[in-house]
Specification:
Two copies of one chain form a homodimer. By secondary structure, the first copy, chain A, is α+β, with helices and mostly antiparallel strands. Chain A is built from five helices and three strands, in the order H-H-E-H-H-E-E-H. Chain A has a three-stranded antiparallel beta sheet. The mean pLDDT of chain A is about 90. Chain B binds a DNA duplex through helix 3 and helix 4.
Chain lengths: ~100, ~100
DNA sequence: AAATCGTTTTAATAATCGTTTAACAATGGA
DNA sequence: TCCATTGTTAAACGATTATTAAAACGATTT
């Protein structure tokens, strides 16, 4: 279970258009991650700005990086992402989650 | 589907300890909602401060209120909550969500 | 009318946040 | 070794923003 402060940090990190876009990109990319340059290109963000935002996301525990040759791959931390979501929806409707979840698709 | 700006707004609203606590309380309470006073008491927040935070949450679409006599009941907006979560996890791992979701409990 | 419940407005305080430019570091290939 | 590539770091600039409390107000119930 995540601590409140950690969740607040993660939420704050995501409450910014560029960082939210970065994170979504990483979420859809999966555990393999994406090279920083590819993200910069796709989102049209300067490398410096991107680094700045990566730092914020890393600090919040939402992403992890790994160096591979000249490239730095960033990947979403799914454990933290799920932890955050769980924290928000914990004990939803007093346990009767059916009430608040949309009908299973 | 929610718009990015709306999601950013919701995330920002939740990125504050008191508001996060309020929202969790409402989520666990379900659609019936909780009276403002009861929340103030439980979270030990002054009425004025609570109103301030409610306003932020309302503005972000995360909560709704209804007046019942002297009481104002606040309830979480589950549609927006789920929309936000879906936005974050959309196309998770390129569609193979098994990779990033914890084993079903 | 009095008591209760909550909102709004105002004011004071404190804290950043995001971007760009330029310099720097590390890697890998010619 | 030298150079191109890939990112990070640091500094500086500009623009706001968030949080809380106090006081006055509105509305409702008894």
């Amino acid at each position: 279970m995540m601590k409140p402060a950690q969740v607040v940090k993660a939420l704050a990190a995501l409450a910014q258009p560029t960082r939210l876009a970065i994170f979504r990109l990483l979420v859809s990319a999966g555990p393999e991650g994406v090279a920083a340059g590819a993200i910069a290109k796709k989102l049209k963000v300067s490398p410096a700005t991107l680094s700045f935002h990566f730092r914020a996301l890393s600090h919040a525990g939402l992403v992890e990086s790994r160096q591979d040759g000249r490239f730095v791959y960033y990947a979403a931390n799914f454990t933290v992402m799920n932890g955050m979501v769980d924290y928000l929806t914990e004990n939803c409707c007093g346990g009767n989650a059916e009430m608040c979840k949309p009908p299973a698709k």
